């Protein structure tokens, strides 16, 4: 048995069956490339859902982790540590917000946002107790906690996990009129991704965010922007909201904040919103820990020093053009922004899964998102030569058809 096969057997035996990964067992990564336990090399075109924007094992980030690991890793928030302050300072400067509240996973930072805007609704806007409403977008992905899945439109995410949390209203993504109509005097916030990654790389109409800004301002509603996947350079700007210059009231970051080396997330806002939190209102044992903060400081610096947002824009525009040039009858559309690109496969050609399997056989790692979309989101440090290497292989795979009858035989 190959080492990969042994590993897959072990995981099938001892692991919960809550994911359906491609059967690739990775042991090492460097930049945009990863190696499996049998020595096969792949171009990573997922970047752990954009958590590894800075590339695998970036030397400067590894050095920060090694140094901080030997100095101090956790103090809890019962005491201060010498890393959190500089990290929050740097994050606030980068995002252009006055305050940041550090957590660990993205879902925790979304939960933090929900608590903040509800409390703002009661204490500042004057919404009657327990009546606060948050408007969200259909097709959203904000994480997997019981409250967050309560406003998912993905039935499987909710099935069997009720009772669900009330207080959320769902409107179509990218629809400014629907937002305005959904607002009531009890609306405290509109929570949305600027571009939907998990939904299949769905790009909103141009001008939508500007309208969102205007509507939210007129109705005294907070616009909360989930940039966990789109942020930190991925779409060709440091934050996707910057494409329209319409600044949200609060931003949620995660994933690439610490370069994929450690889970660090944060909720950012100005004092008018962050000021609702008083000691004891919210917290996390690991949130703001010196290990994550030290790694985050360098991971954020790498984004700026290496101009990774500009790289994403340049390479992404070129790569998307090249993907669109591929002659195939299997593709509905190639869409995206920067290096967050979705290739939608025609239903008649089969699902995206066999395309991802065929790409993996050729040394390119992608994961299907929703049944029909292959997402290309390599580390932002990827080179043009790497992508040029991948293009003919992608063209070969996209020329294939995995129509249902064939897929059954596959
Ligand atoms: C990944 C993601 C989350 C959840 O982050 P976790 O770290 O997996 O909890 C939330 N929102 C968006 C847009 C994401 O892509």
Give structural notes.
It is built from 15 helices and 17 strands. The chain is α/β, with parallel strands linked by helices and 410 residues long. The chain has 2 domains: 144 residues, Aspartate Aminotransferase, domain 1, CATH 3.90.1150; 247 residues, Aspartate Aminotransferase, domain 2. Strands 4-12-11-10-7-5-6 form a 7-stranded mixed β-sheet, with helices on both faces. The chain is globular and about 60 Å long. The two termini are 22 Å apart. The structure holds pyridoxal-5'-phosphate. Pyridoxal-5'-phosphate binds next to helix 5.
Itemize the secondary structure elements and their pairings.
Elements lengths: L2 H12 L11 E5 L2 E4 L4 E4 L2 H4 L8 H11 L14 H12 L3 E5 L2 H20 L7 E5 L8 H4 L5 H4 L9 E4 L4 H7 L4 E6 L2 E2 L5 E2 L4 H11 L3 E5 L23 E4 L11 E5 L1 H4 L15 H16 L2 H18 L5 E7 L2 E6 L6 H10 L2 E2 L1 E3 L3 E4 L7 H15 L5 H6 L1
Parallel strand pairs: 3-15, 5-6, 5-7, 7-10, 10-11
Antiparallel strand pairs: 1-2, 2-3, 4-12, 8-9, 11-12, 13-14, 14-17, 16-17
Helix pairs in contact: 3-11, 4-11, 12-14
Bound molecules: pyridoxal-5'-phosphate (PLP).
Pyridoxal-5'-phosphate (PLP) binds next to helix 5.
Question: Which properties best describe this structure?
Answer:
binds pyridoxal-5'-phosphate; alpha/beta; 38% helix; Aspartate Aminotransferase, domain 1; 410 residues; 15 helices
């Amino acid at each position: 048995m190959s080492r990969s096969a042994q590993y897959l057997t072990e995981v099938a035996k001892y692991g919960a069956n809550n994911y359906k990964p491609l059967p690739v067992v990775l042991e090492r990564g460097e930049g945009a490339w990863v190696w499996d336990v049998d020595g096969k090399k792949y171009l990573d075109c997922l970047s752990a859902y954009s958590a590894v924007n800075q590339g695998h094992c970036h030397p400067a980030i590894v050095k920060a982790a090694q140094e901080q690991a030997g100095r101090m890793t956790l103090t809890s928030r019962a005491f201060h540590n010498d890393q959190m302050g500089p990290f929050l300072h740097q994050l606030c400067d980068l995002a252009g917000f006055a305050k940041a509240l550090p957590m660990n996973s993205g879902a925790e930072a979304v939960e933090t946002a929900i608590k903040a805007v509800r409390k703002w609704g009661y204490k500042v806007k004057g919404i009657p107790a327990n009546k606060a409403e948050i408007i969200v977008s259909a097709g959203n992905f904000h994480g997997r906690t019981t409250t967050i899945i309560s406003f998912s439109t993905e039935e499987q995410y909710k099935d069997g996990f009720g009772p669900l949390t009330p207080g959320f209203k769902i409107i179509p993504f990218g629809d400014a009129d629907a937002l305005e109509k959904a607002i009531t005097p009890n609306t405290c916030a509109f929570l949305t991704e600027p571009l939907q990654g998990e939904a299949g790389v769905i790009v909103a109409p141009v001008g939508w965010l500007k309208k969102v800004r205007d509507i939210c301002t007129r109705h005294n509603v907070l616009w909360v922007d989930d940039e966990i996947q789109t942020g930190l350079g991925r779409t060709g700007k440091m934050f996707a909201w910057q494409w329209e210059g319409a600044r949200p009231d609060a931003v949620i970051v995660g994933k690439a904040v610490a370069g994929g080396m450690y889970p660090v997330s944060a909720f950012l806002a100005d004092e008018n919103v962050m000021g609702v939190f008083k000691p004891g209102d919210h917290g996390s044992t690991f949130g703001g820990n010196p290990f994550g903060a030290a790694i985050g400081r360098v991971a954020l610096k790498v984004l700026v020093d290496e101009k990774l947002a500009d790289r994403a824009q340049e390479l992404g525009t070129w790569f998307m053009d090249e993907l669109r040039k591929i002659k195939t009858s299997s593709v509905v559309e190639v869409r995206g922004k920067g290096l967050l690109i979705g290739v939608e496969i025609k239903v008649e050609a089969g699902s995206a899964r066999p395309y991802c399997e065929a790409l993996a056989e050729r040394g390119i790692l992608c994961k299907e998102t929703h049944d029909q979309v292959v997402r290309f989101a390599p580390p932002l440090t990827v080179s043009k030569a790497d992508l040029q290497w991948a293009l003919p292989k992608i063209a070969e795979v996209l020329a294939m058809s995995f129509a249902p009858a064939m897929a059954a035989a596959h």
